[in-house]
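I have been asked to look over a protein record a colleague put together. Thanks in advance; the entry in question is below.
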Amino acid sequence: KVPDVVFKTRTRIIADSKEEKNPFDWKDLTTDDLFKDKRVVLFALPGAFTPTCSSTHLPGYEAKCEEIKKEGKIDEIYCLSVNDAFVMRAWGLKQGLTEDKAP
């Protein structure tokens, strides 16, 4: 069981955000909003832009994302770090990730 907490979360306000510096707004999301009736993988990293996280941790999950979802019957995979949302976004873009997973 996931504890009942509120996350201060950046949420997309502009559909095509490649040209926008900040296509997000802040919204309170609860653990129920993110996890209720879902099977999720939640993994944490020491920090964005660190050598090991950039070369091994995140790419490992990204490479196996669809396989994990299919074989494990997982609905979503979430990555947590100590960094703020702006650093995480910049790191994700630098890693070549798409932004369609932002809540």
In short: The domain at 6-94 is CATH 3.40.30.10 (Glutaredoxin).
